Description:
Blueprint (H helix, E strand, L loop, with lengths): L8 E9 L2 E9 L7 E7 L3 H14 L3 E6 L3 E6 L4 H11 L6 H12 L6 H18 L12 H19 L5
Antiparallel strand pairs: 1-2, 1-5, 2-3, 4-5
Helix pairs in contact: 1-3, 2-3, 2-4, 4-5
Amino acid sequence: MSEVLAERTYxxxxxxxxxxxxxxxxxxIPEKVREATLIRMGGQKAEEVFxxxxxxxxxxxxxxxxxxxxxxxxxxxxxxxxxxxxxxxxLVRRSRDPTAWTKYxxxxxxxxxxxxxxxxxxxALALAIELSQIQPPPERVRMQLNxxxxxxxxxxxxxxxxxxxGIRKA
Length: 170
């Protein structure tokens, strides 16, 4: 695993706001007290994507803690799977229909059907973090990763996934 991702903790969060549901992928480094939002994903289908992801994560025992309120639900992820989950969110972030990708989520993060998929997703997140350190997001953006970088990596990973494993319908 990349140095950028080592020793981090990961949390998948669903916040219900006045503008609608928002998925947040958060991470904390042990030396820092506060966790940071790496990726935000909103939209009409955000809650549906979140529920599908959580169901798979629970099924495989990748969730270590859960909690929250009606408007804020969180799931702390095991360290070894956190980067792949973040990479999946990078992949689906700018999709017209992110729910079309949820049927592939389990196979992509377990790496059983699509060999090397966890490594690809992990590297996608690591690349986004490294490039965002070089070119940080604008101050008005409420996440640590630059949206332009996330969008470009998302496009590249989609092409890679389609070429490597023949995933066409997503």
